[in-house]
Amino acid sequence: MNQVTTPAPQVLLAEVTHRCPLQCPYCSNPTELIKKDVELSTADWARVFEESAELGVLQVSISGGEPAARRDLTELIGAAHEADLYVNLITSGIGITKDRLNDLVGAGCDHIQLSLQDVDPDGAKLISNLNKSLERKLEFAKWVTDISVPLTVNAVMHRLNLDRLPETIKLAQELGARRLEIANVQYHGWAALNKNLLMPTQEQSDRTNQIVKEARESLEGQLLIDYVPVDHYAEYPKPCMNGWGRVALIVAPDGSVLPCHNATTLTHLAFPNVINHSLENVWYESDAFNAYRGDTWMHDICRTCDRKEIDFGGCRCQALSILGDASAADPVCSRAHPHALVIDDDTQVLELVEPDLITYRPNA
Predict the structure, then answer these.
(1) In this structure, which long-range contacts are made by residues 348-355, counting pairs with CB atoms below 8 Å and at least 24 apart in sequence?
(2) What pLDDT does 347 receive?
């Protein structure tokens, strides 16, 4: 793959910190969290935003952890805006006062994506390990819509809250959200440690598929619904990140550049850092980003499959985790693996009784 055949990236996910007031047991951050003392400086992030815009990126999603944990968040948003990027802030809403929100919007924040752990206060507290987290999020959401900033609700779903999906959809409407992400937990990192607590049943998964289908039909033109299903029950794998190094790139708090959230588990790859590499060089020339582009790396069953331009072989991290081979067909794929590999019938599914059954992610 080379510069001619590799399209420019469209989206930059800027993970500016791993610090967070919440302790969600399915957090997409790696289990080895990056510490504050090695986070990129404001000036480094400003350069990253400029380079990404020059590379062709149209949108930056500023995320974490909780990006509000950085005192320079207003400056970071301003720098992204100055680079002529569409700025989406992905936040828990915790730690952002009404005045600070106005400052962020004034600096150039175009859109806010608010995470939602549950529509039930007790359920939200259980997952976030923070008192009144839901109540604080609802207040924040009202501030956002009051100043007419577009709002997306990101509802992370799992066995403990999937039965409240209809109420979740209703709440997104009541909050004035323009978009709802119904995102079933992806079982990597922290979520893998809590899989026996969070994995939905097949019945829940099937019911969710139907609820989403009906909601999309009934709310067409009112609420855009994006849906990440439970891939462990799927017939085919999801197109992870829309294909390795095809659409998006992630810059971690320390400047490491990754093709997906969990890529650091692929320890046979060395991921470049923005401190000593340009984003252009990383995107087009680095071995890590070229490792799983195209189809030459694929096993025959994937390379000859008519779905290879749909799911691009699926998830490399999942293939490595379950099969021990990052180039293998995604374990979800029924064509490559007729027998289920991702659901272990012998695994005990725990009924949640006490929070001490959960492996919480640390705050920092």
Answers:
(1) 348/196, 349/159, 349/196, 349/199, 349/201, 350/196, 350/197, 352/126, 352/160, 352/197, 355/126, 355/129
(2) 44
> Residue 152 in contact with residue 112, Cβ under 8 Å?
yes
Question: Rounded CA gap, 266 and 191, in Å?
Answer: 17
Candidates 156, 196, 195, 189; CA nearest to 362 is 189
On whether the CB atoms of residues 290 and 257 are closer than 8 A, the answer is: no
Stated pTM of the model = 0.94
Rounded distance, CA 27 to CA 252, Å?
14
Q: Pull the structure tokens for residue 85.
A: 């990027």
Peptide bond into 294 cis (omega under 30): no
Cα distance between residue 128 and residue 26, in whole Å: 10
Rounded to whole angstroms, how far apart are CA atoms 103 and 84? 18
Measured CA to CA, the distance from residue 66 to residue 19 in angstroms comes to: 6
Residues 6+ positions from 292 with CB-CB distance below 8 Å: 244, 245, 259, 312, 313, 316, 326, 327
Query: How far apart, in whole angstroms, are the C-alpha atoms of residue 183 and residue 227?
Result: 6
| Sequence-separated (6 or more) residues with CB below 8 Å from residue 312 | 239, 240, 242, 243, 244, 246, 292
Kind plus residue range of the DSSP H or E element containing 300: helix 300-303
- Cβ 201 vs Cβ 156: under 8 Å: no
Per the CB < 8 A criterion, the answer to whether 297 and 320 are in contact is no
Q: Is residue 4 scored above 50 in pLDDT?
A: no
pLDDT digits (tens, 9 = 90+) for 238-275: 888 899 999 999 999 999 999 999 999 999 999 999 99
First to last CA, the chain: 38
HEC readout, 64-77: CCCHHHCCCHHHHH
Closest Cα to residue 157, out of 110, 200, 95? 200
Return d(Cα 215, Cα 223) in angstroms, integer. 9
Contact at 8 Å (CB) between 270 and 288?
Answer: yes
User: What is the rounded distance in angstroms from the CA atom of residue 73 to the CA atom of residue 65?
Assistant: 13
